[in-house]
Design goal:
The protein has 476 residues and is mostly helical. It has a single domain, classed as Hydantoin permease (Orthogonal Bundle), CATH 1.10.4160. It has helices at residues 3-9, 40-46, 53-64, 70-98, 102-105, 107-110, 112-146, 150-167, 171-194, 209-227, 245-273, 282-287, 292-316, 330-352, 356-385, 403-426, 434-475. Helix 2 (40-46) runs parallel beside helix 11 (245-273), helix 8 packs antiparallel against helix 14 (330-352) and helix 10 (209-227) packs across helix 15 (356-385). The protein starts with a helix and ends with a helix.
């Protein structure tokens, strides 16, 4: 593998980054091993693993638990998904321009070690959380198809996913065909459900203060889901196109927005149609709106999509027992890592099923709490350094340790938690209770981290020319 290729591929959590002696910055002019047209990014983010029932369930939740009308819910979803897609496009364009994934670009904000720690935490929260969500969705879909207890469906899901992970099947190739089929099935189901929605089904919540706050809550809920994908925005930077990175950014932004917005809108329509349904299984509620045979087929594709996505995640967990120099054989890693992850996923999924909507809402918000401060640090860094000729020389400096990035994220998280805890002291006086405080806390973390990092980065950028001038004078 060429040296610029190693840099472009960047780092993964399991094997973090290339060794300093082996890596050198990937120049924007370096030719990647495979060229793609800019709008390839559109298709990547239009038909990807986030074409899942989890996005549909967000739309169902905002109707069933926030008492919103169709118009209010769609307005909130548009605002939230548009904001998440915009930042996704900016980060994609930046990664394509520098031929580096976001996990490598983060070294500019947090330093080498700080970036490794922060990115690992965010990746674990994101990857393992979605692993549990996918497992539980598959279990619920199996209950819908076969009328099994959820715990039985969860046990079957865990067993099948383990066997798939150990089988050695190339699921990435399988997903190239499976995910488009899942997307097509969900779109057809959405058309059928939207055709049933009439103004009479719309609860028509008033556009008062409570209604406007609900729109903001929905927007932030959708935004938290969308920015969860921002951390993977430049994963395909080595396929950088030969044309403008700006077009690649626009393409990925549009792809993420269209897919997320479409699925959440389907969920809104389904939620309106099942108001008053006492079932605690959202996949059952969803399939009840479809012809029986087609509804079963949709659930089968939902199960297959969840199983294949989780099989890849389990395969990656092989590295769990190779960290820290543990003396574990290759077969031991293949068996122990996926097994431990699956058992924990089963137990947490079983627990989460007790309050499905509340726990899912809490997970998406928790993901937003972690990602939002990180995201704004990345956006502020881009804004202040966008005129630099080539900042890639900073990415592989082992002694690089900009404290402001870590301080900004830490302070943002602290501010978020303090505002969320405010409900304890004022009795939860805001409309919609705790979820309103959760949303305000997430916004505080986002803006606070950006303000602190912007202040610190400006100071660092101003001090560097002075330090360089002093070194030059001393040499003379």
């Amino acid at each position: 593998m060429a040296r610029h290729e190693t840099a472009a591929l960047g780092a993964r959590v399991a094997h973090y980054g290339p060794a300093p002696a082996q890596a050198e910055p990937a120049a924007p002019g370096a030719a990647p091993d495979q060229q793609r047209r800019p709008w390839w990014y559109f298709w990547v983010w239009l038909v990807t693993p986030h074409n899942e029932f989890g996005a549909i369930y967000i739309g169902m939740i905002v109707v069933l638990f926030l008492d919103m009308s169709l118009g209010q819910a769609l307005l909130g979803l548009v605002l939230g998904n548009a904001a998440g897609a915009l930042s996704h496009g900016i980060l994609t364009a930046r990664g394509v321009h520098l031929r580096s994934p976001q996990i490598t670009l983060g070294r500019k904000y947090f330093g080498h070690t700080g970036n490794m720690v922060l990115t690992t935490v965010i990746a674990l929260v994101s990857s393992y959380g979605w692993f549990i969500v996918n497992s539980l969705v598959a279990a619920l879909a199996l209950q819908t198809i076969f009328d099994l207890p959820v715990v039985a469906g969860l046990a079957i899901t865990v067993a099948v996913q383990l066997l798939l992970a150990w089988s050695g099947v190339d699921f990435k190739q399988l997903q190239r065909y499976l995910f488009p089929l899942v997307a097509v099935m969900l779109v057809i189901a959405g058309i059928m459900i939207f055709a049933q929605v009439t103004p009479a089904h719309d609860p028509g919540s008033p556009w008062n203060l409570s209604g406007l706050i609900a729109v903001v809550v929905v927007a932030c809920f959708a935004w938290a889901y969308s920015i969860g994908w921002n951390i993977y925005s430049t994963d395909y930077s080595r396929y950088a196109p030969t044309t403008s990175p700006k077009i690649a950014g626009i393409a990925s932004s549009v792809g993420l927005f269209v897919s997320s917005m479409l699925l959440m809108s389907i969920g809104v329509a389904a939620g309106i149609m099942v108001i008053g349904d006492d079932s605690s299984n959202p996949t059952q509620q969803f399939s009840s709106l479809l012809p029986s045979g087609f509804g079963t087929a949709v659930m089968v594709f939902v199960v297959l999509g969840a199983w294949s996505a989780n099989a890849i995640a389990l395969h990656s967990s092989n590295h769990l027992f190779s960290a820290g120099g543990l003396d574990v054989s290759t077969w031991g890693r293949r068996l122990m890592g996926p097994f431990v992850v699956s058992v924990l996923g089963f137990l947490l999924g079983w627990w989460a099923e007790g309050d499905l909507a509340g726990n899912y809402e809490g997970y998406v918000m928790a993901l937003g709490y972690w990602v939002a401060p990180w995201l704004n640090v990345a956006l502020v860094d881009y804004r202040l350094r966008r005129k630099m000729d080539d900042p890639t020389s900073e990415l592989y400096e082992q002694d690089l340790s900009p404290k402001w990035g870590l301080f900004a994220v830490g302070f943002g998280l602290l501010g978020s938690l303090c505002l969320y805890a405010l409900q304890v002291f004022d009795g939860g006086g805001l409309p919609h209770g705790g979820v309103s405080y959760a949303v305000l806390g997430m916004l505080v973390g986002f803006y606070l981290s950006g303000a602190i990092y912007g202040f610190g980065l400006k100071r660092m950028l101003k001090s560097r020319p002075a330090a360089a001038g002093a070194e030059t004078s001393g040499a003379e």
